Amino acid sequence: ISAASGDAYESSFGMDIKYDKVICTTENLGITEQSIIWIDDLNSENPDYVVRRVARSVMGIYRIAVAKIVN
Quick check: 64 and 22 in contact, CB under 8 A? Predict the structure, then answer.
């Protein structure tokens, strides 16, 4: 999981995406653009991030852009 970011210049996600962190993995975790996940507070009843975009490179690396859920 990357440090906080969110600029649209990240070409693997396109130009119209707002995100806070990027998860990189070589495994298909079954995460989709409708997924909500826990990152910062694993003990909370409510997830704290929503998946904005999932991109897979030709090398088999999954990059998952996530945005903080603001309550």
Answer: yes
